[in-house]
Amino acid sequence: MLTKKNIVTKNKPGRFGEFGGQYIPETLMHEVTKLAAAYEHYRQDPKFQAELKDLLDNYANRPSLLYHAKKMSADLGGAQIYFKREDLNHTGSHKINNVLGQVLLAKKMGKTRVIAETGAGQHGVATATVAALMGMECEIFMGEVDTKRQALNVYRMELLGAKVHSITTGTGTLKDAVNAAMQEWSRRTADTHYVIGSVMGPAPFPAMVADFQSVISQEIKQQLLAETGKLPDAVVACVGGGSNAMGAFYHFISEPTVRLIGCEAAGKGVNTKQHAATVERGSTGIFHGMKSLFLQNDDGQIDQVYSISAGLDYPGIGPQHADLAATKRAEYVGITDDEAVSAFEYIAREEGIIAAIESCHAVAYVRKLAPTMRPDQIIVCNLSGRGDKDVAAIARYRGKKIYD
Amino acid sequence: MTKIKPEEMLTNAFSNDHKALIGFVTAGDPSFEKSVSEILTLAQAGTDIIEIGIPFSDPVADGPVIQAADLRAFAAGMTTERVFDLVAAVRQKSQVPLALLVYLNNVFKYGYERFFKRCEELQIGGLIIPDLPAEERPEVLPFAQKYGCALIPLVAPTSGQRIPKVVAGASGFVYAVSSMGVTGTRQQIQTNLKQMIAEIRQATDLPIAVGFGIHTPAQAAEIATVADGVIVGSAIVKLIAENDSAVSAKLDDYVQQLKTAIN
């Protein structure tokens, strides 16, 4: 039985159990050490926190709604379903929470240029947006395949003044974009901050990004207590690197009655080679600056993974998720492309919400989970982003000839 | 005669009146047999230490030339086990000091104990692990020490005050990274190497070799005036990629030019 006491574990700095760490080239160690010290300082600086809160509330449109999906709850005939509407944030996803925090921090550190990787383009758009707002130079690294499946987001970033690099190495997806951004950072650190978009990479990134995203669960807790006087029975979120899930889990990790469920991309099925189900099929490894779970072969070569969703198309997972999985504090389930697309259509018709295909992996699991629960129980599902960017791709998936 | 530890083979490749040339090839580029013959050619031509790269799917510290070599090696069926087979084939004919360039995940997945044991058996003197900074070295060091294999520390232009920590307790030699960014040839090296090397010498007695970006004999000669050794990687890999049948003669000629330039 989980109790508050045994789930709050003492960790070495930058570690979550055995996971985490700083496995990066010496070229970057100086900068990452400086970043850790700066973050530690500003984290406790009330002025910094007040500035960040002002940006979150007055620029990013926080707090985001916690919406009771009554029609869908009735249709599924089980638990009450609430959606945390991160899709209603400025730029259309949860990514802005982290970007505002990191770019503000970079500015305080005297940086004039930010770089970032992006998969679906949500993090790239958020970074380009905040760079424009704060008057910083911005370059985004995006896999070539993703620049095609998310062409509109490429143009969005360019509109916002960012330079977008199309990465042709490897599979031309998120992993390769991270490689390219890390390489660029190792070339130029003096004026440049690398805004990592998820709870991954070397310390302090996983903990720092989790802090910046923790506003999601902080609001969920307040909003749900105000409306129902209860905690949720389950929190469900999609997981690629895992930032929206970590934000949604954060303030519930120490609440043993709350089930935490991360939904991974099972692509064309976990028994095929075309998936990105890291917890289910991965093993411990060391890559992208962290010890965590990765999809890889026996030699430690990183697999080429696949998901219909560019944002979940990543062969690893943040180290804190790896620890939550190892300690069984959170559960991780696989959702296939088919299930996610079906959920995309379902939530559109049932609730009038076009949600990101990433988030629809969580919606798909809610469709399975809710009917197994009682009507007095509560599921909170994090709608991490809006789905406008996916409409053309879903149409193509259904055989309709639409081009964006 | 007492048997020397493999890591001492690396240190002994340097001496006061002799600057060391360290050459790099990716194991299995473009094939197992050709790779063995390249390494033997480099050794016969007088390369003092040969650094053999284990191909990695995502070589984050490497530039396009070595990335392409890794892909050719994978196409030739390279695995960690095959790399050890390749070193064994080299060892049948040569006692040239050897180091491996390997990303940590390949060592981790093979198993630290098992990996370093193989290194000792094959007299591999050291590992250069680009993604293992001093902070994470304690995880690996006990195994390296047990089998007499050096963990070659990398010092970067940004290391500054970190240098004493980076070289503390190190063996083999120190790899001074000439430039920011990834491996690959550069027209110019911007770093103040003289000062960087002076700072390293304050912290350690180990020989210091400089790598990243060196390709012309003139560059090598200039570096040899301040360092104990010169590391040439991408330029050799490029030579291998661009020459097929004539590769032996080209490698031999290139090594001679570099050797003459640095001594």
Give a description of the structure.
The complex is a heterodimer of chains A (404) and B (263). By secondary structure, chain A is an alpha/beta fold. Chain A folds into two domains: 26-56 and 95-209, Rossmann fold; 61-92 and 214-397, Rossmann fold (3-Layer(aba) Sandwich), CATH 3.40.50.1100. Chain A is 43% helix and 19% strand. Chain A contains 17 helices and 14 strands. Chain A has helices spanning 4-7, 26-43, 46-58, 70-76, 95-108, 122-134, 144-149, 151-159, 174-187, 205-213, 215-228, 243-249, 278-281, 319-326, 337-351, 357-369, 391-397, and strands at 15-16, 19-23, 66-68, 80-85, 113-118, 137-143, 163-167, 192-194, 234-238, 259-267, 283-287, 289-294, 330-336, 378-383. A six-stranded mixed β-sheet of chain A has the order 3-4-14-9-10-13, with helices on both faces. In chain A, strand 5, helix 6 (122-134) and strand 6 form a beta-alpha-beta unit. In chain A, helix 6 runs parallel beside helix 8. The longest helix of chain A has 18 residues, at 26-43. Chain A starts with a helix and ends in a 7-residue tail after the last helix. Mean pLDDT of chain A is 95; it is low at 1-8. In chain B, strands 5-4-3-2-1-9-8-7-6 form a nine-stranded parallel β-sheet. Chain B has one domain: TIM Barrel, CATH 3.20.20.70. In chain B, helix 11 (234-242) runs antiparallel to helix 12 (247-262). Chain B is of the alpha/beta class. Helix content of chain B is 44%, strand content 14%. The chains are: A alpha/beta (404), B alpha/beta (263).
